UniProtKB/TrEMBL annotation:
Site (Essential for prephenate dehydratase activity): 261
Position of the signal peptide: none
Protein role: Catalyzes the Claisen rearrangement of chorismate to prephenate and the decarboxylation/dehydration of prephenate to phenylpyruvate.
Gene Ontology CC: one annotated term: cytoplasm
Cellular location(s): Cytoplasm
Record-given protein name: Bifunctional chorismate mutase/prephenate dehydratase
EC identifiers of the protein: 4.2.1.51, 5.4.99.5
UniProt xrefs under CDD domains: ACT_CM-PDT, PBP2_PDT_1
Residues in ACT domain copies: 280-357
Reactions the enzyme catalyzes: prephenate + H(+) = 3-phenylpyruvate + CO2 + H2O; chorismate = prephenate
Residue ranges of domain Prephenate dehydratase in the record: 93-268
Swiss-Prot/TrEMBL keywords: Amino-acid biosynthesis, Aromatic amino acid biosynthesis, Cytoplasm, Isomerase, Lyase, Multifunctional enzyme, Phenylalanine biosynthesis
UniProt organism field: Trinickia fusca
Length: 360
């Protein structure tokens, strides 16, 4: 049986080995050209990472591919190829909400590839400060969750900061219940970030109704605590389980099987048009009848689609609000540019957070 199997597999494996040899030659040729690109960028002081260019490369390859690789496979492969090429030019650093094992870290690697250097931060505030001070070129921050809504602190800091949004990623959130032993014997409390506890509330009520729930700064911190205390169960990711040496007692305990968190990438450099973009802005209007209608009417008239509308109190002692709006298109495209110009005339306050490639 083994001899027959090997005899059938050997010619196929030989063909794969030959293709791999071609691939490594071509990848090294590609990397050499990427180094030449890096030298040109260095001469013009251009940024190493251009999200719109990488989006265009992946989209083109997905379009010309006739399978069997699916679009997400091509995206994952080429993200790492481009990340490795970037690292040959210069190491790029991104700040994220730590410690290691958080969904923010996972989003960072998913977006930038594994050749990025991560800087773990203790809070979303610290992520912003690190990028503003030059400790990292980019920051990765959660902005909203499909179950729990907006991440308020991120919205507040986007209003205050001069950093711009350069990209986004919608990450599937898969919560697991982790323990040292892989069982629930002796468990006295469940630790997790407050949003994770909320996202798993129905499961916890059904399976652990009498166990104490403790909110901590991140799910990775919960995993760290569980790794030192057999009485603690943590709600966290597969990555956290592997990093902290924990076992999965129950997988996928989130109440919404389609639970996702949207992350945005913040930095100093605006993204150029990619052909598949989104613009985020903050607007406030005078407290008068019809003010919100006057705010939205230019979007409809110029044919600009709104994909998100979120209100936040202005915190100035009166009943006034900031509106966080996402619209389709880049600020340099004519319909969006005309809309923004009109909003600037009509609104009491307008801040453009960035135009950037939309998550596919």
């Amino acid at each position: 049986m083994d001899d027959e199997l090997n005899s059938k597999l050997k010619p196929l494996r030989d063909r794969i080995d030959a293709i791999d040899a071609q691939l490594i030659t071509l990848l090294n040729q590609r990397a050499a050209i990427a180094l030449e690109v890096g030298e040109v960028k260095k001469h013009f002081n251009a940024p190493v990472f251009r999200p719109e260019r990488e989006q265009q490369v992946i989209a083109r390859l997905q379009h010309i591919s006739d399978g069997p690789l699916a679009g997400e496979h091509i995206s994952a492969i080429w993200r790492e190829i481009m990340a490795a090429s970037r690292s040959l030019e210069r190491t790029v650093k991104a700040a994220y909400l730590g410690p290691a094992g958080t969904y923010s870290e996972e989003a960072m690697y998913e977006y930038f590839g594994h050749s990025i250097e991560g800087l773990a931060c203790q809070s979303i505030d610290e992520v912003f400060r690190s990028v503003e001070a030059g400790g990292a070129e980019f920051g990765v921050v959660p902005v909203e969750n499909s179950s729990e809504g907006a991440v308020s602190r991120t919205l507040d800091l986007l209003l205050q900061s001069q950093l711009v949004i350069g990209g986004e990623l919608a990450l599937p959130i898969r919560h697991n219940l982790l323990t040292l032993s892989g069982a629930l014997t002796g468990i006295t409390r469940v630790c997790a970030h407050p949003q994770a506890l909320a996202q798993c509330q129905r499961w916890l009520m059904a399976h652990l109704p009498h166990i104490e729930r403790q909110a901590v700064s991140s799910n990775a911190e919960a995993a760290r605590l569980a790794s030192h205390d057999a009485g603690v169960a943590a709600i966290a990711s597969d990555r956290a389980a592997a990093h902290y040496g924990l076992q999965i007692a129950y997988p996928l305990i989130q109440d919404d099987p389609h639970n996702r968190t949207r992350f945005v990438m913040i930095g100093h450099t605006p993204a150029c048009p990619s052909g598949h973009d989104q613009t985020s802005l903050i607007v406030s209007v005078k407290n008068e009848p019809g003010a919100v209608f006057k705010l939205l009417e230019p979007l409809a008239r110029h044919g600009v689609s709104m994909t998100r509308f979120e209100s936040r109190p202005a915190r100035v002692g009166t009943w006034e609000y900031y509106f966080y709006i996402d619209v389709e298109g880049h600020r340099e495209e004519a319909p969006v540019a005309a809309t923004l110009a009109e909003l600037e005339r009509k609104a009491a306050f307008l801040k453009i957070l960035g135009s950037y490639p939309r998550a596919r």
